[in-house]
Every structure is written in C-alpha cells, then in structure tokens.
Specification:
mainly alpha, 138 residues
Length: 138
C-alpha cells in the first residue's frame, strides 16, 4: 500500500513537471531522432548534434508558423496534433516508468498512464495556444 501511495505521489509531482514542460516534447523528440539518424550515418558527434539542434528549431518554427498564420482549420488541427501526440506519449511513458514497479495490475497501470498522457497532451495544447497567441500578436 505504501508503494502505491508513493507511486501516486511521484506521479503527481512528475505530472506537474510534465505539465510545465509539455510544449518541448516535439522539439526534443525531433532532435533525438535526427541525432540518432545522423550519428548512425557516421557523420560525427558534433555534426550530428548541430543537425539535431537545427531540426528541432525547424520543427518549432514550422509549428508556430502554421498555428500563427494558417487560416485552414484542418492544417492548424494537424499542427496541434503534431505537438500534442509526442507530449501525450511522453506523459504516458513518464507515468508508466514511475509506477511500473509499484502497481501490479496492468489495467490500473495503463489507466493511470493513459490519464497522465491525456492530461499532458491537453497541457501541451493549452501552452501552445498561449505561446502562439503571444507570437502572432507581435
């Protein structure tokens, strides 16, 4: 029982942290993927690092440009989904990683992870809406 309460407490603390960092899940995942791809192609560590940082910056600029300037609702929804899905995956993985040793029930573990992923995905959408409104108002 104590481990379950500890897992729930740690999940709440990490969920608050994930709420604040949810907007950065897309650039981090893009940078990680680009780095792995470039480093696997044997171009060197520092070049792969520069390429991955550039890819993260391009993804960030592309999403903000689409949300800030596009008039097509389907295109804006696709950009929002592009940000929300990696955030939801990160929220699910965060909760699953914290609670997997404390909770034996697979159903309860998946429900807790799914709820956390949903909350973090919604947080990314809210944070993105605030950030895009600030960028497009300038």
């Amino acid at each position: 029982m104590t481990l379950i309460l500890l897992a729930i407490s740690a999940t709440i603390v990490l969920a608050v942290l994930a709420w604040n960092l949810a907007l950065y899940a897309l650039p981090v995942m893009v940078a990680t993927t680009a780095f792995q791809w470039m480093y696997g192609a044997d171009i060197g560590f520092w070049t792969a690092l520069l390429v991955s940082l550039g890819a993260a910056l391009v993804s960030w600029i592309l999403v903000f440009a689409i949300i800030g300037f596009a008039r097509n609702p389907a295109l804006r929804l696709a950009a929002l989904a592009l940000v929300a899905v990696p955030s939801a995956i990160a929220g699910y993985a965060l909760t699953y990683g914290v609670a997997k040793d404390a909770i034996d029930s697979v159903l309860l573990l998946n429900l807790l992870g799914g709820t956390s992923g949903l909350v973090v995905g919604i947080a990314a959408l809210l944070n993105l809406g605030t950030a895009a409104a600030a960028v497009s108002s300038r």
